[in-house]
Amino acid sequence: MGFVKTMLNLIQKKLQDRTCDQVMEFSWSALWNITDETPDNCQMFLTCRGMSLFLECLEEFPDKQELHRNMLGLLGNVAEVKSLRPQLLTPQFITVFSNLLESKADGIEVSYNACGVLSHIMFDGPEVWTMDEPRRDAVMDRMWEAIQSWDVSSRRNINYRSFEPILRLLPQSIAPVSQHWATWALYNLVSVYPSKYCPLLIKEGGVSLLEKVLELESSQPETKDMARKVMEQCETFKEDPMETNNGQEVNYGQRG
């Protein structure tokens, strides 16, 4: 936890100097790594004014794509912690995340991570959405638009060690758009990196959860189509692992 404070202090100093250099980018990247499925570190980030620094960095460095990717990757980790999500549910933060859905920074990465943050928030249901603006349904519409704009064959600057945070968004009817984001994420990863992610999805019980997506009346037709494709990809991989490994698999980035 002392490391979280140290990194935030470095970021604060760089902001005062109005400098976005390798130290700044490394600091956010390091925070992304040490908050991965580590709720205590996520809490420490929020306690130590992390969200204020995030907003200041966005404003001060609007064109720094790698910085934006690292910051949104970190916030994706924070949003996975149910007890911390209420702190993200403010008009200011929701507006920022919604606007970042349209970001083209680092390919789809910033838009994808912004949509992931919002997907976890939407999963908590309409009753927690106490603000008048922005409206929950308007934000969900923007999420649908963003997901439909992404190229499903995109190579990724991201590395999942576990699908558990994504899988929990599948068998539910509270937020069909969150379910769609999760299904899109799985389809992209098992299509582009089959030898890495098909075994992980199978091992973590993802196929049976995708079957539940097909059974739910609330699941949208395009979500069901994508769920079937994920299941087919895993089935093909099991039958012939070499056949589906279409190209060299390289991961440049990190996920938390």
From TrEMBL:
The keyword Kinase does not apply. InterPro entries: ARM-like, ARM-type_fold, ZER1-like_C, Zyg-11_UBL_adapter. Residues 237-256 are annotated as: Disordered. It comes from the Eukaryota. This is Protein zer-1. Belongs to the zyg-11 family. PANTHER family: PROTEIN ZER-1 HOMOLOG (PTHR12904:SF23), PTHR12904. Residues 1-235 form the Protein zer-1 homolog-like C-terminal domain. Residues 243-256 have a biased composition (Polar residues). Coiled coil: none annotated. It comes from Xenotaenia resolanae. Keywords: Ubl conjugation pathway.
